[in-house]
Fold this protein.
Amino acid sequence: MKAPDAMTASAATPEDDGVPVSVKIRERIHAARKRFHANDNIAEFIEPGELDKLLDEVTTKMEGVLDSLVIDTVNDHNTGDTARRVAKMYLKEVFKGRYVEGPEITEFPNAEHLNELMIVGPITVRSACSHHFCPVIGKIWIGVLPNEHTNVIGLSKYARLAEWIMGRPQIQEEAVVQLADLIQRKTQPDGLAIVMEASHYCMGWRGVKDMDSKMINSVMRGAFLKDPNLRREFLSLIPGKN
């Protein structure tokens, strides 16, 4: 017959040990000495089934936020399920890029030794600023100068990679660098250029309430950084940017 303490230990499961799933995930990240900033992906530290438990936890915390905002969610038919909807929106939609692995990208060798400028865009991207969690919505143009060793990926895959990077609380300047680093690793081109133009609702919805202002920034790598003629060619071929 098992000792009482052994029976208790065997009966306990991760689901009923009383430790919030967010704490378990955070402990794994700390143990790996990894960063978990707002725009980091933490999918490798989330075990199967834990995302749904995290959804329950965030729902409960969001209910507390609504209570603190003095909103009667019990009697208000408009906000009765708001906590769950907001939790689901954050975890499985707008911040999905934090919690899931990157998209599968099939890479092909550059069999035809393509070495001419290729531009993909505009790709519509949606994110949220990590200062206020307000929407950031804009467009991205990607320029690639391949070489004979460059991996070729499908055009739609650039959009998938952009969606994954932007699906986190972001700062636009950091987002384009993250995307450039990712595409650089995937394709190994001679040159890579990214331009992003976006509206920030933390300016249009609050603060100065200016809906017309946009932010434009760029990242230039390799040949685009060294060759001003190539850089000018890329920028001149972006509609409305020449």
